[in-house]
Amino acid sequence: MPPPLRRTTFEMSRALxxxxxxxxxxxxxxSPWNWAIAITKELIDNALDECESAEVSPAITxxxxxxxxxVQDNGRGLPLTTLERxxxxxxxxxxxxxxxxxxxxxxxxxxxxxxxxxxxLSRDGKGWVTVTTxxxxxxxxxxxxHLAQQPKLSLTVQEEEKIKTGTAIGIDWPEKA
Length: 177
Description:
The protein is α+β, with helices and mostly antiparallel strands. The chain has a single domain, classed as Histidine kinase-like ATPase, C-terminal domain (Heat Shock Protein 90). It contains four helices and six strands. The protein has helices spanning 21-28, 35-54, 80-86, 110-121; strands at 61-65, 68-72, 127-133, 136-145, 150-157, 168-172. The chain has a six-stranded antiparallel beta sheet, with helices on one face. Helix 1 (21-28) runs antiparallel to helix 4 (110-121) and helix 2 (35-54) runs antiparallel to helix 4. The termini are far apart. 29% of the residues are buried. The mean pLDDT is 87.
């Protein structure tokens, strides 16, 4: 008689749901070839929502330089606490979770997708995004902790570069994008 089959239970972090091509494609709802367009739309939607909340006429700028695509608005600026909380993939952070419309706010987790997409598409296993506000400029870098099998996100203060109003989010899109 053969020995009984013994199954092992595996446990994986839910944070990894954003850090593989297959999983991120499900989060964004588009194939990787369309991620830049989908995420740019989400950043523009976020900019419009912020300007609406700030009660200012929106002035949104898109800038494409080399591999970097930047979306900048003239709202109040992304608070550092919201930026820091958005790096925690075990919770959803949104001030619009209950206000999704047919044309805006489709993801509900846009910043998490923004941080993850450059990493997932990179060939060197690293991705980065810059966030500039009136408080300063920050760099979000993503790597994989191979031992723990968890994403490793770091937030560092960049040079003393600031903008007068609003938020500028610059994504380093790998060649594949």
